[in-house]
Design brief:
Helix 5 runs parallel beside helix 7 and helix 8 runs parallel beside helix 9. The N terminus is likely disordered. The chain is of the alpha/beta class. The chain is 40% helix and 17% strand. It contains 11 helices and 11 strands. A hairpin with a 4-residue loop joins strand 1 and strand 2. The structure holds 5'-O-[(R)-(carboxyoxy)(hydroxy)phosphoryl]adenosine. The site of 5'-O-[(R)-(carboxyoxy)(hydroxy)phosphoryl]adenosine has 19 residues, from helix 5 and helix 6.
Length: 360
Amino acid sequence: MRKMISTKLHTILALESSCDETACAIIHDGREVLANVIASQADLHAQFGGVVPEVAARSHIEVVIPVIEEALQEANLTWDDIDAIAVTRGPGLIGSLLIGVLTAEVLAVEKQKPLIGVNHILAHAYASFLTDSEQPKFPMLALIVSGGDSRIMLFQKDLSFELIGQTRDDAAGEAFDKVAKLLGLPYPGGPNISKAAETGNDRAYKFPIANLGDSYDFSFSGLKTAVLRQVQAIVGDQPGLADLRKTYQLPAETISDIAASFERTVAETLVTKLLRAYNAYAPASVVVGGGVSANKRLREGILSAIPDARVVPPVFCTDNAAMIGALAYQMVEQGSGVLSVEQLAGTEVGLTADSSLEVI
Ligand code: KG4
């Protein structure tokens, strides 16, 4: 007999493997997290100072099934309790995405479950729905700041959205990672810059904020180069070609002061743009997500500028599968993006390695 997709898919098992985290979460009714397992490869990549795509893909293969099994165990559920499978379809590293998508496709066929392919960037905004208090209202203004993206978007309830502003060059997380490398701090850069900044003077150095006129765009490339020039001036290095792959030896106190000044500049840039967009669009809610929103200074800056902003809890800021399940549930509610087992035969979930923002 043909298996119908129920209109309510209460319990969704979600997979995320777009970069260097293999994650599986089980989400009930789009908001309750029954399990949230994240296997990070950070230690594996630290020795190379950044993510090595082939190493990442191989590690996903090794851990994806144990991570799924652990999530089912954590939620105390079996496959019979799962109504659908969701998976990150992009953007991300193609080899890493492939492991998650192929695993999800095979499991969907084997376990006879519908499949939902989810956009990773949009999911960062929908991580804010993982709450037992009131859910965000629409129109919803979202600041998404991660390793690959920095955007301000305005979402409507039907998942349509307008891109209000974005980075013109580096993502905020990329700037954190590159400046960390320059200062000799280990990968991943963001948390290590933050740690070093704790004891630093955030007014010790004045770094530039790109002047992009009235737009809601940001730029972090000039800031990154300004940090490099400052470091070169301190060590007496020739300011020749900007070589951001170099690591400099600096006293701990100087590292802390540069880290704090850099962090303050990034936070000020993002808070200023978000606040301007908030005043211009008067949204019903403001949400902030993505790895960089785990940053304490940024979180505090946003909350002091917009006290009712919902800054996603740190565990759902960096890559996780719970946010994939949260957006998948909203997609099901809107009737978009669900593939039945029959449709799956001969179809692909629609892998996108680029930064495409389409929802389905
Ligand atoms: O969202 P995410 O885990 O992956 C992407 O979807 O890109 O973001 C990773 C980025 C990295 O660049 C990392 O350095 C940054 O988020 N990050 C932070 C912090 N924690 C992670 N940046 C600043 N402060 C943090 N505490």
